[in-house]
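user: can you give me the structure for this one chain? tokens are fine.
assistant: on it. calling the predictor now.
[tool input]
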Amino acid sequence: MIRFFGGLLLLVACVSCLVADEYIGKVKSVEKDKTKITVTVDGKEVILKVAKDPLVVNDKGKAFPGGILKILPGSEVKIFTDKKDDKETATTIKVMAPPEKKK
């Protein structure tokens, strides 16, 4: 029993090291060639490289229609990244809310 929980703790520690970071903010822009996304997080712009085939989902976890190119500026997103050689790459983009409509 102790070995099981010890192994489980080690597994959780290793998996948490694989995910570099997550960002929650509003999309400023997406490059047409799908290589970079610019997000405003806490008033600062963050430019992230995007993986070749990122997972793009809506707030319910279903595939986002149209993929990354259909994410509109102003949309609230949560971006999960992987880190390799001190460089972060966006691997999963969760679109939390569409942009607010202006009145």
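assistant: here you go. Strands lie at 19-30, 36-41, 44-58, 76-84, 87-97. The radius of gyration is 16 Å.
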